[in-house]
Every structure is written in structure tokens, then in C-alpha cells.
Amino acid sequence: AVGAGSAFGDTERSVYIVEMKDSPAVAYAGGIPGLKATKPGKNQKLDPNSNDVVKYADYLKAKHADLLAKSGGSDKLYDYVYSFNGFAAKLTAKQAERLRSSKEVAAVNADEKLTLDTSSTPAFLGLSGPTGFWETNKAKGEGVIIGIVDGGIWPESLSFSDRTGTNGNATKDGKLSYQQIPGWHGR
What does pTM read for this prediction? Predict the structure, then answer.
């Protein structure tokens, strides 16, 4: 039997994130027959359990599945429908190219692991300190745009170590400083 990947010229699969052009649920203002707008009003939040949002999310997921089937089929890993419209899937390079050429697709990007350069951005960018931009230009924050990149949590990181004290301070062999809380059954 010929696999889906070989039908398109290659079999090596990688994870890709496919961004669709249709609005996600948080921005859908209506226009599709039978599907009411799901964009929340001013000072309101999206209710992912509302009937209209569930119907629209199902519509987006069906479009994801249809497009993926047309590209040769693959393992869809996750659907994104609320604040981003797209999906993650294991694709061959040729399938990714085929999806990029679809009029329904905004972007196709290989999923890649990135590392953060800093967790103390002001110093890293030369903003703080006696010779930093803020001090030398007497800047108070006017016109500043703030961007946040959440690097997620890696439980194995020494930043989350419960070892402190002598030889501690983010080492695996330090003194265990935090004991099980009496009556608490979690970890």
C-alpha cells in the first residue's frame, strides 16, 4: 500500500502549524449562513460553551479536516479555534507546500523549538541602569509598546527546584527546603 506521504513525493513528516484565513471565534462577526457572530461585545468575554461558539468551532474544525484531507491526509494533532484559527499536524514538506498554496490558508510554519534570550528584558535591551535609555533620555514610558513572550513552564528547570540552603540555590543536590504540606495530597 502506498502511504499518503509517498503519494506526494516524500514520507518524512514534521509538525507544522497551519493558520487559516477565516476569523477565529473571538473575532467572527458573522456572514456565514447558519452561523451567528461569536465576537464578544465591548467589555464581554467569549463563552466557549455557548451554542453559537460551539457551532462555529465545529465549522472551523470541519474546514481544517477537509483541507487536511485534500492535502493528502495526515495526523492532525490539534485544532485551534478560539483566539487563533488553524491546526497543528504532522505533514510532509510537499503537503505543507500544497497547503501554503490554498486560498483558505494564511500561513504554514514548521513547529520549531526556540529558546529565550532573556527573562530580564529591560537590562537585556539596555533600557535600565544608570546608562540605560530610560535614564539617559528621561523616558517615562510614553509611546511604549510592550510585548510578552511566554516561554511556558518546564518543571525540570532548576528555577522550580525545591532545593535551597547550603549548596542549594538552583542545584539538584541542595537541602530539601519544602516538605509535603500536611493534609495536602497533591505534589
Answer: 0.61
